[in-house]
Write a structure and sequence with these properties.
Blueprint lengths: L6 E3 L7 H6 L4 E4 L14 H13 L3 E5 L4 H8 L5 E3 L8 H10 L6 E5 L2 H11 L2 E5 L8 H20 L10
Parallel strand pairs: 1-6, 2-3, 2-5, 3-4, 5-6
Length: 172
């Protein structure tokens, strides 16, 4: 289904690099706001840096795929040497497909992680990569994301009719 994630976990910070290696994952593509960082605070940057190091130690690359502009993303990620695609145009799979090609990876070697059904899960599903929905890091959103959250309520309702969306601590 277009919006249904393959996996659901509480937070991106619960990803286990050992498990990802067993799954054949070579890259984690992630949304930025409310997935890696709270959109309105930079206090999760330390956790983001630690996750990046854990993944890198396992030979897994972290790449941010965001609809934000380069200036905004670079300001946050450049100090941590995390690669990114800006203006990814999610829910279209353009940014994901671009990075798959750039890294010379197969679709089954990548996870797309994000906190939104309408942008992150749809883009990942359209690109044909495994998707991981996480809970937003904070309950507030920028004005443009609030519009998506309104429509997500309806999508969650219909997804839950078929099979409930339950957030777990680990990928299952």
């Amino acid at each position: 289904m277009l919006f249904r994630p393959r996996y659901t976990i509480d937070t991106i910070y619960h990803l286990d690099p050992k498990q990802l290696k067993k799954m054949g994952i070579k890259a984690v593509f992630s949304d930025l706001d409310n997935t890696l960082l709270a959109w309105n605070k930079a206090d999760t940057a330390v956790e983001m840096d630690q996750l990046n190091h854990r993944l890198a130690k396992a030979g897994i690359r972290l790449v941010v795929i965001s609809n934000n502009n380069s200036e905004r993303i670079g300001k946050v990620l450049n100090p941590y040497h995390i690669s990114f695609i800006a203006k990814a145009r999610k829910p279209l799979p353009i940014g994901i497909n671009q990075e798959l090609k750039e890294l010379n990876l197969q679709k089954d070697q990548v996870l797309m992680v994000g906190d939104q059904l309408i942008t992150d899960m749809q883009a990942g599903n359209l690109a044909g990569v495994a998707t991981v929905l996480v809970k937003p890091l904070v309950e507030t959103d920028k004005w443009n994301t609030r519009i998506n959250r309104f429509f997500e309520k309806f999508i969650f309702f219909f997804l839950n009719l078929r099979k409930p969306v339950v957030f777990k601590e680990k990928l299952e």
